[in-house]
Please model this.
Amino acid sequence: MSSLNTLSHLLLIPLIFMYGCSPGLPSDGDSESIPGELSQKEYSALSDQQKYQVANKLLGTMFKGMPVDEFFDISSGMANPGLKKGRDFMSSTKAALSSELTESEIKFNDNVITDIDDQNSDSLFQIDFNNSNSDWPKHMPMARIFQYPLSKDFFDNWIAYVLANTILFSPAQEIDSTSIRDVQKVFFKL
Model:
């Protein structure tokens, strides 16, 4: 009887903890902002250098970074630079990451990466799609992250790249029973 009682307690404890957890957004009425997200008001209160640090840290996490000359107007020198893109960085970045590229923009950027028409003029990589030993499945995701402008398509590629390179999602190319094509399949499904 005591083992049955212990078993019921062991089952009851996780249920109590799970009952308290909710996967939804906070219910305090502020559903527009994700918990921990820097609000526009908080961002506006920062100094220009702190705004640049926030922008560079955020975009640096996504392998982009923020060039100083795009964020600040440095035409009059670096002694007292004025803001260029920095004023509305939070809202413009959020809007850019939620907008999708058009089909023609995707094709253009993929052509810059792969040079499918074999002109070899401005491509980032010389890729041989016919060579089964080629490393292009490894290079293509990073090339898209590099080439695509800030957009939902860029963000989706970045998330898939990060997930595909974690042990929980990766088919571990180092194992003899997997190939680079297996990694590519996982990436495309993400």
About this structure: The two ends are 49 Å apart (CA to CA).
